[in-house]
Design brief:
Largest sheet: 6 strands, mixed
Distance between the termini: 47 Å
Number of domains: 1
CATH architecture: Alpha-Beta Complex
Strand order of the largest sheet: 3-4-5-6-7-8
Radius of gyration: 17 Å
Helix content: 10-25%
Number of helices: 3
CATH superfamily: tt1808, chain A
């Protein structure tokens, strides 16, 4: 007789306790729907795009919002993903008391090369379910930006975004912030194909 395989789900409190105990040491994991998920290693194209975004987004959000890079966001689904970037409100305590939640988020950003399917198939519905209004994927495979907005839930409880727009590497896109600063994508994308 085959034994049944079981998995163990973790609550946010248990996950935070494991972090305090340094359980993960040098492992890069995030909590998705109560399960620990190993984060993909970053290639050179991903790292370059990340550096470019730090530089460009930092200038655009200064004084308007906070830019966080690969830091946790707490979601109601028992998830604590670590998106490549999040643009969040600026609270008085600078998130010392808790990680940002969906109500704090202007924009979530993932940089996708090897993780493209994961960012579309797992992260996108997770963010839509949390009612995060704007989600962007810097698609390094096609050298384009995919923007998603207007989350919704269909009659079968599947979550997605109503609007998807593609911006090419030689275009600009407005950030969903007060004053709508514009990001020049040619300063973000590498000209080299992935």
């Amino acid at each position: 007789m085959l034994s049944q395989i079981t998995t163990r789900r973790f609550s946010l409190e248990e996950y935070h306790r494991l972090i305090v105990l340094n359980f993960f040491q040098d492992e890069r994991v995030e909590l998705i729907r109560g399960e620990l998920v190993n984060m993909a290693a970053k290639g050179t194209a991903h790292a370059t795009c990340c550096r470019n975004l730090v530089r460009e987004l930092g200038k655009l959000v200064m004084g308007i919002a906070e830019l966080q890079c690969q830091d946790p966001i707490t979601l109601p689904s028992g998830s604590e993903p670590e998106p490549d970037f999040a643009i969040v409100r600026s609270p008085a305590d600078n998130y010392l008391s808790a990680h940002p939640t969906p109500a704090d988020i202007f924009l979530m950003i993932e940089i996708a090369d090897y993780s493209l399917n994961y960012d579309r198939d797992v992260k996108l519905p997770l963010y839509a379910e949390a009612n995060i209004y704007h989600y962007w994927i810097f698609n390094l495979v096609a050298n384009q930006l995919e923007t998603y907005s207007e989350p919704f839930e269909d009659s079968e409880n599947n979550c997605d975004y109503r609007l998807k727009r593609i911006f090419l590497a030689n275009q600009s896109v407005d950030l969903p912030l007060p004053s709508s600063p514009s990001l020049d994508l040619s300063k973000v994308f590498s000209l080299r194909k992935f």
